[in-house]
Here is the input.
Amino acid sequence: MDIITYRELEPKDEIMMLMDLAFWWPISPKDFEELINMDARLKNSPVGFCGVKDGRLAGYVGVMDIPTKTIKGEIEIVGGIWAVATNPDFSRQGICKSLMETAHDYFRKQKYRFSFLCTTRTIIAYGIYDKLEYKEVEYVNRFAGVSKVLDKSEPVDIKAETMLNPEKIYQIYEKFVENKTGFAARQKDFVNLFTKRKSFDEQKSILKEKGYALLREARDVIKVQDLVALDDATYGELIDETERLAKSGVINRAVADRGLLSIYKSKGYRVQKRDDGVLMVKNLADATIDKVYGESFHMAALDWF
Here is the structure.
């Protein structure tokens, strides 16, 4: 098997089927290229490593250069593993492991101290990551989730058609993460990036003077992708307005702020303490995330990759 970067892969047509087989996320090479050029985490990276066997794309492991914020307030770039996929026609041939090791070698050459990935405990790949010495990031995996069933019989409120202001949202976000570490360093135009990736619905989302809620809808349930506020009153307003827009219910899978969790509880939300979706990390150097990031490690649902 030959291992090459995604940028070297030609033709790139098989990436569309591979992404659909692995993630039910078909994407054409043209659309993929647009996302690569918009995403600062991919723009200057190899994008991913491809296993090519018998002239076919046998597997893929994506790589990102992700900015994080340390306990000292410094920006540290780390490795990010994403979109790990093996073509079923080439399963059980060690392709995933070989591509992962190539990705780790790339990160080490960049002098990155950590490699992060997002996964689920219930899939086979979790065992592979465990064997590759990835460990769960407890600071993030202990974040609670919340939900509230509404099942309205009357029509839901129709949100006024107001455009989100990416610059204002970025300013609010920057104030919000001032004292946070971890995945607390987004690119300035992150709203445009995640709009393109369809991570949230711009028409459903809410912007206020001191906060915002980036939302998406699935089967009449509103899923909170990013809820940020600079004070408790704004948190309350955002939650109430989100409920007015929802027909069947509201879910927030990752409530990183304890104060926000208390507000959700006061409004009758049920708390889910555990989630099979997890963040994992592999140490690539003589460093630990405890010492680098402390206990203020932040990550929102929108930051999952």
Q: What stands out?
A: The chain is about 30% helix and 30% strand. The chain has a mean pLDDT of 95. Residues 144 and 274 are 7 Å apart (CA to CA). The first strand starts at residue 2 and ends at 5.
